[in-house]
Amino acid sequence: MVFMYIFFVDSMYTCNTLKTILMDTSNHNIRFEAEVSDEVRARNADLLHIYHEIVELIRYVQTFLKDEPLRARFESNMLLNPDVKATIEQCATNWCMVSVGCDDEGYYTVVYSLDYRIQDLLGHRLANFFLRKIHDIVWDETLYDYVFFATLCEESDKVFSAILQEAEHVDFHELYCEQYIEG
Fold first, then answer.
1. What pLDDT score was predicted for residue 140?
2. Alpha-carbon gap, residue 79 to 89, rounded angstroms
3. What is the pLDDT of residues 149-165, one digit of tens each?
């Protein structure tokens, strides 16, 4: 059993409310993290930080996109989903997806996928910027074996639509839309 404090944020990243959630993680792989060494626990914290840096990068890139559907994203606390055993958090947009998960030995990994149309959706310059920043974020020789590029063949809009439909019936997906910054 885990107590988690969740701050809900609006599109300006200011805290709106504080909510305490009691989660039953007895079936989730995260329970194995209690048995790992301090070294692995520190690496897991670094990987969680990498995941959050990528999500911040996604938020930043979204502010430059004119099309509202491209500025929308789901941030999901998968610990609240009793059917999920490995994924801890995920972020999904119409053009990419990133998640952090825990395997059955208590080791975290970060996985990201890009839509094969990313250059068409973001434009050449913004797509290049995004890819270079991802590389900068994940390039750490000690963590490189735990960060995976899953696919470039993802049809992210279909994944996003599936999450949108699921979000109508569950409370672990939060939908956000960034404000467009002219310039």
1. 83
2. 7
3. 998 777 899 999 999 99
